[in-house]
Design brief:
This is Two-component system, chemotaxis family, response regulator CheY. The protein is α/β, with parallel strands linked by helices and 121 residues long. The chain has a single domain, classed as Rossmann fold, CATH 3.40.50.2300. It is built from 5 helices and 5 strands; from the N terminus they run βαβαβαβαβα.
Amino acid sequence: MEILITDDSKAMRMIVMRHLRQAGFDDAVFYEAGNGLEGLEMVESHDLDLILSDWNMPEMDGYEFLIQLRSRGHEVPFGFVTSENTPDMLQKARTAGAMFLIGKPFTVDIFRETLRAAGVS
């Protein structure tokens, strides 16, 4: 499984990777991007199975990243890992094509349960 983690914080990308490994994705190949523009470049150069993205980032935020991704015909499973976890944000994310939204702070169990419920394995 190839997973892209898009977040402007290197530390947060490392935390998400660690949680994913502990949630059972220890054999995954991880790629990183610091914003949505870098994420789009990674999508074009890798055959990704999952994208996890922060919402608020410079250059291109996660929501615009998702909109651009879908407008280009990419259907890779996409979820947000963000502190923006209001019901309105979740609805906006789902309408744009996100499968889930994991709110910060999070646990390994939240990752495991959310990804299992989304059918990501």
